[in-house]
Write a structure and sequence with these properties.
The protein is of the alpha/beta class and 329 residues long. Helix content is 46%, strand content 16%. It has 2 domains: 2-136, Beta Polymerase, domain 2 (2-Layer Sandwich), CATH 3.30.460; 144-276, NAD(P)-binding Rossmann-like Domain (Rossmann fold, 3-Layer(aba) Sandwich), CATH 3.40.50.720. It has 9 helices and 10 strands. The protein has a 6-stranded parallel beta sheet with strand order 7-6-5-8-9-10. Strands 2-3-1-4 form a 4-stranded antiparallel beta sheet. Strand 5, helix 7 and strand 6 form a beta-alpha-beta unit. Helix 6 (144-156) runs parallel beside helix 7. The longest helix is centred in the C-terminal third of the chain and has 53 residues, at 276-328.
Length: 329
């Protein structure tokens, strides 16, 4: 038996092609671990040595052609890179590690792993954890919403007394609201166009978050220390002429493209206005650092591959002739 990987990801195939690979039945294939995420579908299997991908696919019921095929050490190295976030759309992201662990756990519960896959996945988890411990690959955010929250961490330090508001509840606005609620923000108001959807989202948050129409945002500016806007609505939600400067320190973070807030607001006393371009500089610096850490991670993988090869040889190469001798003796 040899380790074999058949898969497709965001680099090799379109979303529609990846969807064609998704199948709950794959979770029950013998000697396999099936991984399906929004960015990849991969099947790791303990296959007959030398079997072709076409032959394997036909045995599985004629699945579509994979975007890539890896065997042996190359398949193992790929798994480690995926688990460590080195093969992710966002370099160093951590979510995929949990997804792989859940996929492996499902395979264990279904009884579809066996000694070879158990060894491979447990060793891959160990190396991925080592990479995250010994490098900073995952510690510097690069998404706009994450960088925005990192900037706010630097400004406020702690959030228990911060009165906040989020205007616009698309993906970016929701991520930001979740991030604020996890930081224990003092209060949080949500402003949206679709109030039913906004209220459903608010119920999922760990803090109380009243929902208000987007059109009344300007009436509540004096009540907040922090405002984050993330709408696709053209034109300014708040113009400088509508803003009455108060005596308290305020931070406005405009994540909208086009901008949601009048740039002239930045001239107001005690008001600090940031936009997406301000965050891009931080994100670029973080990405450059992540790429540096990725090189350190690859060095760890290279060293660990030697240990993997020796253990693989001891377990699955030397042991095989003995087993064959016993079976034919």
């Amino acid at each position: 038996m040899e380790l074999m990987l058949l898969g497709c990801n965001f680099r090799t195939t379109s979303l529609a092609e990846r969807e064609a690979w998704v199948s709950p039945a794959q979770q029950r294939l013998p000697n396999t671990v099936y991984l399906a995420t929004c960015n990849r579908v991969e099947i790791y299997t303990a296959a007959k040595e030398g079997i072709s991908a076409d032959k394997l696919l036909s045995e599985w019921g004629g699945r579509k052609e994979p975007g890539y095929v890896r065997r042996g050490e190359a398949a193992f190295a790929h798994l480690v890179r995926v688990a460590a976030g080195l093969d992710a759309m966002v370099l160093g992201e951590t979510e995929v590690f949990g997804q792989i662990k859940r996929a492996y756990q499902k395979a264990l519960e279904a009884g579809t792993t066996g000694p070879l896959l158990n060894f491979v996945f447990q060793r891959a988890f160990s190396i991925a954890k080592k990479i995250r411990t010994e490098t900073d690959i995952s510690r510097l955010p690069v998404s706009v919403s994450s960088v925005g929250l990192m900037l706010l961490d630097q400004i406020f330090g702690e959030f228990k007394n911060v009165r906040s508001a989020v205007a616009g509840l698309g993906a970016m606005g929701r991520q930001t609201a979740i991030g604020l609620s996890k930081r224990g923000v003092g209060s949080l108001k949500l402003f949206g166009r679709d109030l039913d959807k906004a209220e459903a989202f608010a119920r999922e948050l760990p803090v109380s978050a009243p929902v208000l129409p987007l059109g009344v945002l300007g009436e509540h500016l004096a009540d907040v220390d922090l405002l984050i806007t993330a709408t696709t609505q053209p034109g300014s939600l708040v113009r400088a002429s509508q803003y009455a400067a108060g005596g308290s320190f305020q931070v406005f973070l405009d994540l909208g493209v086009p901008r949601n807030l009048d740039p002239e607001l930045g001239r107001a006393e005690n008001l600090f206005l940031y936009n997406v371009d301000d965050l891009k500089t931080i994100a670029a610096q973080n990405l450059a650092q992540r790429q540096k850490e990725a090189r350190a991670a690859e060095e760890i993988i290279e060293k660990e591959m030697g240990r993997f090869q020796r253990e693989w040889h001891r377990r699955f190469v030397i042991a095989r002739p003995k087993a064959e001798a016993i079976s034919t003796g």
